[in-house]
Design brief:
It contains 14 helices and 17 strands. It is an alpha/beta fold. The protein has two domains: 132 residues, Urease, subunit C, domain 1 (Roll); 322 residues, Metal-dependent hydrolases (TIM Barrel), CATH 3.20.20. The strands form two sheets. Strands 1, 2, 3, 4, 5, 14, 15, 16 and 17 form a nine-stranded mixed β-sheet that branches. Helix 5 crosses helix 8. The structure holds zinc ion (ZN). The site of zinc ion (ZN) has 5 residues, from loops.
C-alpha cells in the first residue's frame, strides 16, 4: 500500500517522458509506471493528463533584507508562496558583515526549521577574509558549499542593502578556499563594475536630466558592458584558481559567449538568469516603470532574446528568481528600492514565453529549473528528477491554464510588478517530500514541513555526488 499515487500523468523527467503514474511511500518515490495500473494508495490524485515534473529548485532569493518584516516572517511567508510556483527547494542568500557564520548558523537553522513550508538551503555572502577562512568548517558542519561575492553592483551611489564590494584579493581568497574543499565549493559573483556604475548613475541622473525615463534610464545608468567587464574579470580569476564559478542573474547578450569561452579554456562556470530578464524589457509595452528597478537592470529586447538563445544553446543553464519581497511604488527610478518578487511566476514565464512562444520543450524547462540547479548545488539525485529513491518532490502543471497575475492569484502581500499580465501554464499541485503542500492554487502545507537540505548526517542516504557533469 502506497501513501500517495499520482495517476494519468504526463510524467516528464530530465531524461524521459511517459504517460503513467508515480507512487510515493513516506517521503520518497517508491515506484512508477507507464501503464493504467498503479498500485493502491491512501490517496490517489487523478492528474487528467496534466504534466508532472520534478519540484523546482529555486537557487536565488533574499529574505529579511528589506526591513518590512523580520527574517523569520519572510522565510515563512515566502516558502509558503513558493509552493504556488511549484517550488520545493528554496535557497537563500545569507549575508552578514559583523559575524562569522560559524557563530550564527546554529541559531539561524534553529530559527528557520520550525517555519519552513518547503526544503531550504543557504548561500553564504562573503564580505571579509575571515569568512574565506571558515569555508572548510561551514562545509563540513552544515554542508554549506556556495559562497556569494558582490564583486560589483553596489558602490557609493545606490547601496540600500549596504552590500560590501569585494576586491580582487577577497575574490581570490574565496575562490582558493572554495576550490580546496571536497566536493569543491561554488563561488557566485554579482558582476557589474562598481566604479562605472557609480559614474554612469551620476552622469545620467545629474547631467543628462535623468535620461530617457523609467527602466530605460536605469539601463543607461548601468549599461550592459559594466556586467560584461566584471564577468570577464571573474572568469580570469576562476581560471587562475580552478574554482567552480556561478554567475547569478545574467542579463547581457555577451554573457553566453563568455561561458562558451570558459568551456573552451576549461574554466568551470554555470550561468543563471532570472524570469524577469526573459520577459520584461526596458521598452514599452514590456516595461513596468520604477517598480521593475532591479540590479542588474531590465535590458532592451535584443538582450532578452540573446539570453533565450543562450538557454537553447545550453550556455545559460539555471533559472533563479532573485526573489525579494518588497513594498514599492510612488517613487522615481532613482529613489525606488531594487528587486521584486518572482517565485510565483518562474514556471508561468518559462512555460508561457519559453514553451508556448519560443518552442522550448518541457524537458528543457525541467533541465534548467530542476535538474541543473539540483546538480549545481549537490542535491541531485535526491532532488531535481523523478526516479525511484528520489525525494517525492513533484509539481503538476496545467499547460493550458491562462491566468492574470493578480495579487489574489499570487497570494502576495508585497508589491506585484506583474499585476495585470497574463501567462499560460501554471502549477496546480505541489508535493514536497511526499506531502501535498499546494493544491488548486491553495497553500495547504504546514510550516515546519520543510527541512534544511544541506545538513549532513540526517537519516537519509547522502546525495550521490554526480554533479561533476554540470561542472564541465
Ligand atoms: Zn540576488
Amino acid at each position: 500500500m502506497m501513501d500517495l499515487v499520482l495517476k494519468n500523468a504526463r510524467v516528464v523527467t530530465p531524461f524521459k517522458e511517459f504517460n503513467g503514474w508515480v507512487a510515493v511511500r513516506g517521503e520518497r518515490i517508491a515506484a512508477m509506471g507507464d501503464n493504467d495500473d498503479p498500485p493502491r494508495a491512501e490517496r490517489v490524485i487523478d492528474c487528467q493528463g496534466k504534466a508532472l515534473i520534478p519540484g523546482v529548485v529555486e537557487p536565488h532569493t533574499h529574505l529579511g533584507v528589506s526591513g518590512r518584516a523580520t527574517h523569520a516572517e519572510e522565510v515563512q511567508s515566502e516558502t509558503a508562496v513558493a509552493t504556488l510556483g511549484g517550488i520545493t527547494v528554496v535557497f537563500e542568500h545569507l549575508r552578514r558583515k559583523d559575524n562569522l557564520y560559524r557563530e550564527i548558523m546554529p541559531s539561524i537553522i534553529d530559527e528557520v526549521s520550525p517555519i519552513l513550508h518547503v526544503d531550504f538551503g543557504f548561500h553564504l555572502g562573503i564580505t571579509k577574509h575571515e569568512h574565506c577562512a571558515e569555508i572548510p568548517e561551514c562545509a563540513e558542519r552544515w554542508g554549506l558549499r556556495s559562497y556569494k561575492l558582490n564583486i560589483g553592483g553596489y558602490g557609493k551611489e545606490q547601496n540600500p542593502y549596504k552590500a560590501v564590494v569585494a576586491d580582487n584579493a577577497l575574490i581570490y581568497d574565496c575562490m582558493v578556499n572554495a576550490a580546496s574543499i571536497t566536493p569543491q565549493g561554488i563561488v557566485m559573483t554579482h558582476c557589474e563594475d562598481v566604479a562605472l556604475v557609480d559614474h554612469f548613475i551620476r552622469v545620467v541622473r545629474d547631467e543628462r536630466g535623468g535620461g530617457s525615463g523609467g527602466l530605460k534610464s536605469w539601463n543607461e545608468a548601468r549599461p550592459p558592458f559594466c556586467e560584461d567587464l566584471d564577468m570577464r574579470r571573474a572568469a580570469r580569476l576562476a581560471k587562475l584558481t580552478g574554482a567552480k564559478w556561478y554567475v547569478p542573474h545574467t542579463t547581457i547578450d555577451t554573457g553566453p559567449g563568455i561561458a562558451a569561452d570558459c568551456y573552451r579554456e576549461g574554466t568551470q562556470v554555470v550561468l543563471e538568469t532570472c524570469p524577469q530578464y526573459l520577459y520584461l524589457t526596458c521598452e514599452d509595452p514590456y516595461q513596468v516603470g520604477a517598480l521593475g528597478k532591479v540590479n542588474p537592470p531590465i535590458r532592451p529586447r535584443e538582450h532578452v532574446e540573446a539570453i533565450w538563445e543562450g538557454i537553447k544553446n545550453g550556455l545559460v543553464r539555471v533559472i533563479g528568481t532573485d526573489h525579494v519581497p518588497l513594498e514599492k511604488g510612488g517613487k522615481s527610478i532613482w529613489e525606488e528600492l531594487p528587486g521584486f518578487l518572482g517565485m510565483q511566476v518562474l514556471l508561468p514565464i518559462m512555460i508561457s514565453e519559453g514553451i508556448h512562444k519560443r518552442g522550448l520543450t518541457l524537458r528543457q524547462v525541467v533541465e534548467i529549473c530542476c535538474y541543473n540547479p539540483a546538480r549545481t548545488f549537490y542535491l541531485y539525485p535526491r532532488k531535481g528528477t523523478i526516479e525511484v529513491g528520489s525525494d517525492a518532490d513533484l509539481t503538476l502543471i496545467d499547460m493550458e491554464l491562462e491566468a492574470e497575475c493578480s495579487d489574489e492569484w499570487l497570494q502576495t502581500k508585497v508589491t506585484n510588478v506583474y499585476k495585470g499580465i497574463r501567462f499560460k501554464g501554471w502549477p496546480v499541485v505541489t508535493v514536497c517530500r511526499g506531502s501535498v503542500v499546494m493544491e488548486n492554487r491553495e497553500i495547504v502545507g504546514k510550516p515546519g514541513w520543510g527541512k534544511c537540505v544541506q545538513l549532513p548526517g540526517d537519516d537519509r542516504e547522502p546525495a550521490l555526488d554526480l554533479s561533476e557533469a554540470i561542472w564541465r
